[in-house]
Every structure is written in C-alpha cells, then in structure tokens.
C-alpha cells in the first residue's frame, strides 16, 4: 500500500506551523515530539523549570484535540492518585472504581522525578500495555494514549532518579534548551502563552491521528537501512564507551521512530539519514557512558561518526 505523502504533509504542515507560533525557536523539539507521538511512543523532556516543557504538552493536546490531564508529581503522591482507586458507595452497597487522571489521551506527568520510585512505577503498565490493573481487574486506556513526562536535572534537590526500566518505556528523551535572543524578546513583548493555549482549536482529530500512526508502519524498509540499524546496535554493545549496549526493544523503538520521522517529512521509504535524525533522542537516555555524563547529541554524534552508513 502506497503512502499518500502529499496528503500526510498537507495534514501535518499546518499543525507544525501552529505549534511553532506557540513554542518559539523550538522547531526541532516540536518535530521530535510529533515523531514520538506518531510512533505511538512516550516522551520524556529533561530540562530546567520555565523553558516551555508544559507549554509544548498543552499545545500538542490542544492542536490534536486530545483529552488532556496533568499530574504534578510530588514526594507524597500515591499510585492511586494516578491510576485511581475503589471507593465504597453506600447507596449501591459496594466498592466503585473511580478513574484516575491516567484515563486520558494525553497525560502530562510534570516533574516525574520528584515522586518516589513506587509512584513512578505506577505508570509502567499504563505506558507499556495501554491498560491498568486495580482490584484484580484490567481496565483499558483510551486510544490514542500518550505520556509526556518532564523531569528536572538530577542534581537539583528533591529528585529521585528514574530507574532504567522506567526510562526504557520512554521512546524519546529531549531537552528544550534556552530560546535565542529574538524568540525571547518576542516572548517578552508578545501575548502570554497561556492565553494563546486557551484559544487553540483542534487541527487534527484523534481518529486522524490514529490513522497517521498506522501509516508509520507502511513506510518501506530497505535491507541497507535495516543493516545500518543493526550495526548501530552492535556498535553500542561492543564499544567500550558504554556500560551496556542498546537492547532489542530499543532497536525496535529506533526503527519505528525513524519511520515516523520519515512520514512526518513526506517520505515513503526509510533512509539511514532518518535513523540518524532520531538516534540521539532514542539512544541518549538509554546509554550510560563509562567515562561520565555525555549529552544525547554527543552520544548520537559519537555513534554516527563510528558506524559507517555503507
């Protein structure tokens, strides 16, 4: 089945333009966030407070017409505050399950690393299986289901590092970074971003989004691209630069993210350059350098420079 790339571009181009009007000077981060969503993954944004992480999540929810919930993670948050709990109903004479904020299409888990590991793990089943289990019963989550989590730098006070199993559930991890001078001056002079968010109208319906997510799997794969992908995995596993290499699940995530990137940019065939574009965001939070901390972009550059495309 051939992908209608012209139709896909016509759908997504206005969406990208609107998001760039709201979140200034962050086109790369916006494209990565949309790529992650198209690939049916979850997104982790690590950066200092006040750099637009929450605005980006709100803007995505508004322009995509998704049901949206926000949870502020704190040290006293309980798992039941996220997935819900059963409350006794005197009129019915039985316990009735009350859904938590996870029962939504887009969940913003704000400052996720300020909660305890027990509370962080409450999201594991939801992120992996798109369902939650409570009181011996499994409950499905809405479709689509997308988690955007923000975390503060680990050196800040009151943070609990995310365990590797939790990090692995996030397909991508990005940073917002400081805006450039022109963008920041426009923010100073312009309208409050929260007011712009209030006036957002959906530009893509959830059903359209689900259809686009299905098209990701139709992006053609070549033996050359798959061979390049596997050589990247082997390099990380055999290199002395990293404590551990990328897992098979990480490889599958890298493949799907690259297909989503290709679709977002109107391509119907996966190229090695698509893999290179998403590599830092997919691999950066999964690989632990032996020599100490490295940025995701530095990790990506190192791998790309050492693994030949041909």
Structure characterization notes:
This protein is an alpha/beta fold and 310 residues long. It folds into 2 domains: 42-170, 3-Layer(aba) Sandwich (Rossmann fold); 212-305, Magnesium chelatase subunit I, C-Terminal domain (Helicase, Ruva Protein, domain 3). It has helices spanning 5-22, 27-38, 53-63, 80-83, 117-120, 124-129, 164-168, 181-189, 193-198, 206-216, 223-238, 248-264, 272-283, 296-306, and strands at 43-46, 68-72, 84-89, 94-99, 106-110, 131-134, 137-140, 146-151, 172-174. Strands 2-5-8-1-9 form a 5-stranded parallel sheet. A two-stranded antiparallel sheet has the order 3-4. Strands 6-7 form a two-stranded antiparallel ribbon. Strand 6 and strand 7 (137-140) form a beta hairpin. Helix 2 (27-38) packs across helix 12 (248-264). It is globular and about 70 Å long. The model has no long low-confidence stretch (mean pLDDT 89).
Oligomer state equals single chain
Structural class, by secondary structure, is: alpha/beta
Give, in spatial order, the strands making up the sheet with the most strands: 2-5-8-1-9
CATH topology assignment of the largest domain: Rossmann fold
Mean pLDDT: 89
The percentage helix is 40-55%
The H/E string reads HHEHEHEEEHHEEEHEHHHHHHH
Large-scale geometry: globular
Q: What is the level 1 CATH name of the largest domain? A: Alpha Beta
Euclidean distance between termini CA atoms:
28 Å
Q: How many separate domains make up the residues? A: 2
Number of strands: 9
The CATH architecture of the largest domain can be named as: 3-Layer(aba) Sandwich
């Amino acid at each position: 089945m051939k992908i209608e790339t012209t139709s896909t571009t016509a759908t997504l181009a206005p969406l990208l333009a609107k998001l760039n009007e709201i979140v200034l000077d962050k086109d790369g981060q916006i494209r990565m966030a949309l790529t992650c969503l198209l690939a049916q993954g979850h997104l982790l944004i690590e950066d200092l407070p006040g750099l637009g992480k929450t605005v980006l999540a709100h803007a995505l929810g508004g322009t995509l017409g998704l049901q949206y919930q926000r949870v502020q993670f704190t040290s006293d948050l309980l798992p039941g505050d996220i997935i819900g709990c059963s409350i006794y109903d005197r009129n019915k004479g039985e316990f009735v399950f009350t859904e938590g904020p996870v029962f939504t299409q887009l969940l913003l888990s704000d400052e996720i690393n300020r909660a305890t590991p027990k509370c962080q793990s409450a999201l594991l089943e939801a992120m992996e299986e798109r369902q939650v289990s409570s009181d011996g019963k499994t409950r499905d989550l809405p479709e689509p289901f997308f988690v955007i989590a923000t975390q503060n730098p680990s050196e800040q006070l009151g943070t609990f590092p995310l365990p590797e199993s939790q990090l692995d559930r996030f397909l991508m991890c990005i940073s917002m970074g400081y805006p450039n001078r022109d963008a920041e001056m426009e923010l100073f002079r312009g309208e409050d971003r929260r007011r712009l968010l209030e006036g957002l109208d959906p530009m893509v319906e959830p059903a359209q989004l689900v259809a686009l997510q299905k098209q990701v799997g139709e992006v053609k794969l070549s033996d050359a691209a798959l061979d390049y992908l596997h050589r990247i995995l082997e390099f990380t596993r055999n290199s002395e630069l990293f404590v551990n290499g990328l897992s098979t699940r990480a490889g599958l995530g890298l493949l799907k993210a690259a297909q989503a990137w290709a679709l977002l940019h109107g391509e119907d065939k996966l190229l090695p350059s698509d893999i290179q574009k998403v590599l830092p965001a997919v691999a950066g939070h999964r690989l632990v350098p032996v020599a100490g901390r490295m940025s995701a972009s530095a990790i990506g550059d190192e791998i790309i420079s050492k693994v030949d495309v041909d």
